[in-house]
Design brief:
Radius of gyration: 13 Å
Largest sheet: 8 strands, mixed
Distance between the termini: 29 Å
Helix content: under 10%
Order of helices and strands: EEEEEEHEEEE
Shape: globular
Number of strands: 10
Strand content: over 45%
Number of domains: 1
Structural class: mainly beta
């Protein structure tokens, strides 16, 4: 399943990128942490975040370019999931930096 990311919030102080899956004004997680999970981050050229795989649910962040096909890599990372009252995931917090990787875009470092 491919889900659209509706908005992205970057918080370099907290080392987090939040991928919002709902329309504004519901884009802020609002402290409704539901769980931590291990996700696969797909990285393109120059550390660009392409998408996040949450156990078969794929969140597309940016379109794949031709150079990404040969140079793309995947990294497992711990993410924080936010959900609404019904349990549907509304946002995902992704670390900007982790063991062996750094997201340079859309984190603002590029």
């Amino acid at each position: 399943m491919d889900d659209a990311v509706r908005a992205i919030t970057v918080d370099l102080k907290r080392n987090r990128i939040t991928l919002h899956l709902q329309n504004a004004p519901e884009v802020h997680p609002g402290g409704r942490v539901s769980a931590s999970a291990i996700a696969t981050l797909d990285m393109g050229t120059g550390g660009r975040l392409l998408g996040v795989d949450l156990d078969g649910r794929y969140l597309t962040v940016s379109e794949t370019e031709s150079a990404d096909i040969a140079l793309a890599r995947s990294i497992d990372a711990s993410v924080t999931l936010y959900s609404d009252d019904e349990g549907a995931v509304t946002a995902v917090d992704v670390p900007c930096r982790g063991n062996g990787y750094e997201i340079t875009y859309p984190s603002g470092n590029r």
